[in-house]
Write a structure and sequence with these properties.
The complex is a heterodimer. Chain A is an alpha/beta fold. Chain A is built from eight helices and 15 strands. Chain B is α/β, with parallel strands linked by helices. Chain B starts with 9 loop residues before the first strand and ends with a helix. Chain B contains seven helices and 15 strands. Classes of the chains: A alpha/beta, B alpha/beta.
Chain lengths: 313, 272
């Protein structure tokens, strides 16, 4: 079985769903070998051993002091060291840029935004804002693939006792220095990118996201927004769903006061079920909604949130 | 060698001619390439042009000898992307046009662009948008940095060039905000959270007609047809299927009870 190198950008004692999905995919394609994004520690080694990693590679020193270049050099070195048959990375901005450089270092094809990878390393992804589904392959070198969250159902694997190899990263080349990192406040709600249910708000909310947050909390959902809402400063840019924000495919997407411009649809039209609430009956969002309500989101959302609480008792 | 305050600053901005995302877009032909008939300058590249112009304007602009060169790669009509950049205020243009380029993936594209940067020479800062609005992979800027051995300051929403020739930029993610620094020469990609792009004014539109655009072919760059296009790409699209159109479902008008009807719908779909 081929070694499948899985890059874990932020090793932790309790790997989250996205990391477990990558390991599960690694198992499906071969023997998962983990490249840790920071020097090995007992608790992180144990965590990935429990997820069935057959070997671990860790950098000798921290990689986070420079942007992308150090991580790319390390991942490429780990891929060479274990003669990887494929490299899997998270589909984050960092993950894609690391993959980009690893591809050049290994003279290998890079495919982003994977939602599935078959045993022969054919990658399924959607392109042109969900307009097409394509199957793509790397035709040169070790395929380097970034995988979207929620693409694989994470499964348990037998725990291993993997060997840990420390790699001295050779000169990563010129790189920008990260001179300051400010952590943003963490929300108690699910991550927009990973959530099963998303409730989004737009212009029709007229500046107040409280009704969206109420329904999101009643459903255990993440909060999203249209570009109109983030541009107006009603909510932070990181909540934007659409072409220049997040592209998501939750089981349920509820959008309130969003007209459904093509840029927004680009970010959500592959959701399984779409519910739209808009006061304009001609809003294009109704053309793709499974259930549409012509009405004021500011009264419909609180009523729905209260009804859910009532049924929960 | 970083560019300090006295020397002329040479900025290269990479612009792409993409299908207008306001309309339906299609893949065509056996190689599943994008139909480019209704195309414009990528909206995301307008931010790159703006960032380039602001860098040179902060040092006195064209009058002080600073330049912004707009470069595109693509078929004949891709020159429209350069033209728009010149109208916005870029100094001159470069158009890499060769039939062999069609179907290039990120690896082939970055090879061509890196060869052009080396051929033209002497740029202090290379600026791109955060992604193309058609390919949407965001791979090319990082691959260009790798091929050219330049520090990358990518996905940034602010950019400043100090008198000491050091670039400072801010890169935001969902969880962190990072401050980045690197001496020129460097590669920068800017997000749509930066300064809004300016519209070309009448003077800009008239002035652009006198500006020069250099045409480059593959042989000018010392590349063979087999290194680019579908032949030189390291990835291939095997098949493509259009997403089945979504059918509109039930639409109700709120008569005071729609919130409850919504919950009924969710319960019915087992989504509660």
């Amino acid at each position: 079985m081929a070694n499948i190198l899985v890059f874990i950008d932020t090793p932790t004692a309790q790997p989250g769903k996205a990391q477990r999905e990558l390991l599960t995919l690694g198992h499906r394609l071969g023997e998962p070998v983990v490249a840790l994004g920071s020097p090995a520690a007992d608790e992180t080694v144990a965590a990935y051993a429990n997820l069935g990693a057959t070997a671990l590679y860790a950098p000798a020193g921290a990689l986070a002091g420079t942007l992308i270049a150090g991580e790319a050099a390390f991942v490429a070195e780990a891929a060479r060291a274990c003669s990887a048959g494929a490299v899997l990375l998270p589909n984050s901005a960092d993950g894609k840029e690391i993959a980009a450089r690893v591809g050049i270092k290994l003279s290998a094809g890079v495919i982003t935004d994977a939602v599935d990878v078959t045993a022969d390393l054919t990658v399924t992804k959607s392109v042109l804002a969900g307009g097409y589904t394509v199957n793509a392959r790397a035709v040169q070198g070790t395929p380097v693939i970034t995988v979207k969250p929620n693409s694989v159902e994470p499964t348990d694997a037998a725990a291993t006792s993997p060997e840990v190899t420390t790699l001295e990263v050779a000169d990563a080349g010129p790189a920008a220095r990260v001179t300051e990192t400010v952590e943003k406040a963490v929300s108690a709600r699910p991550e927009l990118q990973d959530a099963r249910i998303v409730v989004s708000g737009g212009r029709g909310l007229d500046g107040d996201f409280t009704p969206v947050e109420q329904l999101a909390d009643a459903l255990g959902a993440a909060v999203g927004a249209s570009r109109a809402a983030t541009d107006a400063g009603w909510i932070e840019h990181s909540y934007q769903v659409g072409q220049t924000g997040k592209t998501i495919s939750p089981q349920l997407y509820i959008c309130a006061g969003i007209s459904g411009a093509i840029q927004h649809k680009a970010g959500m039209q592959t959701s399984q079920v779409i519910v739209a609430i808009n006061s304009d009956e001609d809003a294009p969002i109704f053309e793709i909604a499974d259930f549409g309500i012509v009405g004021d989101a500011r009264s419909v959302l609180p009523q729905a949130a209260a009804e859910i609480q009532r049924r929960k008792g | 060698m970083s560019v300090t305050s006295g020397a002329p600053l040479k900025v290269l901005v990479l612009v792409k001619h993409v299908p207008d995302a306001q309309f339906d877009r299609h893949l065509t032909g056996s190689d599943h390439v994008i139909d480019r008939s209704e195309s414009i300058l990528s909206e995301l590249d307008e931010y790159a042009v703006e960032a380039a112009l602001q860098l040179v304007e902060a040092r006195g602009g064209a009058k002080a000898g600073h330049t912004v060169t707009a470069l595109t790669m693509g078929p004949e009509r891709a020159s429209a992307a350069v033209k728009k950049s010149l109208q916005m205020g870029a100094t001159d243009g470069v158009h890499i046009n060769d039939p062999a380029l069609a179907g290039s993936d990120a690896a082939a594209t970055s090879l061509v662009l890196a060869s052009a940067v080396n051929h033209l020479g002497g740029f202090d800062v290379i600026i791109t948008g955060m992604a193309s609005t058609d390919g949407e992979t965001s791979l090319v800027p990082a691959q260009l940095a790798e091929r050219l051995s330049l520090p990358q300051l990518t996905m940034v929403s602010s950019l400043e060039l100090g008198e000491d020739g050091v670039l400072t930029a801010r890169r935001d993610s969902d969880t962190t905000s990072k401050t980045l620094q690197a001496a020129t020469p460097a590669l920068v990609s800017v997000t749509d959270q930066g300064e809004e792009a300016r519209y070309p004014n009448f003077k800009g539109i008239m002035g652009a007609k006198k500006k020069k655009t250099v045409a480059l072919s593959l042989s000018d760059l010392g590349l063979e047809a087999s290194q680019v296009g579908a032949a030189g790409s390291w990835t291939r699209i095997e098949d493509a299927s259009p997403r089945p159109p979504r059918e509109a479902g039930t639409v109700v008008t709120d008569s005071g009870n729609a919130g409850v009807e919504l919950v009924d719908f969710l319960a019915d779909k087992k989504l509660l």
